[in-house]
Amino acid sequence: MRQFNERVVLQAIRLHGALPKAEIARVTHLTAQTVQIIIARLEADGLVLKHAPVRGKIGQPSIPMALNPDGAYSIGIKIGRRSLDVLLVDFTAQVRERLTLDYEFPDPDTLFDEIRSRLAALRKSLGPKRAQLLHGIGIAAPLSLGGWQSLLGVAPERAGKWSRIDIQAKVAAMTVLPVEMVKDTSAACVAELVAGRGRSIRSFLYIYIDTFIGGGLVIDSHLRHGVTGNAGAVGSMPLGLGGADGAPPRQLLSVASLFTLEAMYAKAKLDPSAFADERALQAPWLPVTQAWMRESALAIALAIDSAAALLDLDGVIIDGSFSREMLAALLAQVGEAFDHYSWEGVTRPQILAGAIGADARAIGGALLPLYGNFAPDRDLFLKVER
């Protein structure tokens, strides 16, 4: 019970920001005396620190207590179809260091050596004392990393290597730290739930646009994994009826994914990497980007309409590994695309921009060990009500 109450206090501060002890007692429903004792222990352990006193008109000034960024660390690894990110994340979920590697498609014969060297580099940068505060490694990777090879233009034998590899076990063999793994878009959803808009929205569908579009599902502030860990896999949603000729309809990921935009850029003899920066909304890339957004917005709106018929949602959060300006433009088009569908009998959900961006998957991975050690219920990502 003592450890649980400590975690409840830490969770309250994480979700609501720096709070004075009286406010912590109010939001956690713990007694003032209990909070006083817990804060003293947490401060002695280096997990919280005092902010400057806030002086009011009456009585003693209140002293907000905040998480100590240097109280704990974790490492998040994102293994994507186009790039590797290895992040050092502090106790407040801020990125301290970022090590990346770009590629056309990940090769397991060389990728794990790259991961090993980056883990060693991060430990070295922390130094012996701070390295003792590392609490684990979280991996975010697609469940079917070798899938859809025909869409990506990857040789089957090259993609097939991933079906024979236990990613978690390979990374665990490199370290004494505990290692956890989660689907990449679920990890991004975790980051949004803990450090983004999810702190104020109880039930939402999360959509993340990268090489492939994917997602996650949060119901009543709980991340839902599903039986196979694939809940919220919006990328696999069909975009129409099966044809009489037996041909299946296209999936959402075949339209509203960044690999499609890359291919459109390449066909126009433009640099495909422009989707990740401001060039996407500048000439000569802009007309191509706009064409991709128009079709993607219609497809995403259809997926949301279908989801709204099954789920009672407070909203839909959309994010991606591109600029915030491009995200705003895409969200505006999705809102307009809603008008092309009937919403009779269905509540039209609000659309919100994600707050994390390109680091969402790796940050979500890094949050897994932090929650395992410091949250009251890491599996459900339970939130304290305010």
Automatic annotation (TrEMBL):
Q: Which InterPro entries match?
A: ATPase_NBD (IPR043129), ROK (IPR000600), WH-like_DNA-bd_sf (IPR036388), WH_DNA-bd_sf (IPR036390)
Gene3D superfamilies according to UniProt: 3.30.420.40, Winged helix-like DNA-binding domain superfamily/Winged helix DNA-binding domain
Membrane-spanning residues? none
Q: Which family does it belong to?
A: Belongs to the ROK (NagC/XylR) family.
Checking PANTHER family in the record gives: BIFUNCTIONAL UDP-N-ACETYLGLUCOSAMINE 2-EPIMERASE_N-ACETYLMANNOSAMINE KINASE, ROK (REPRESSOR, ORF, KINASE) FAMILY
Q: What is this protein called?
A: ROK family transcriptional regulator
Protein's organism:
Variovorax rhizosphaerae
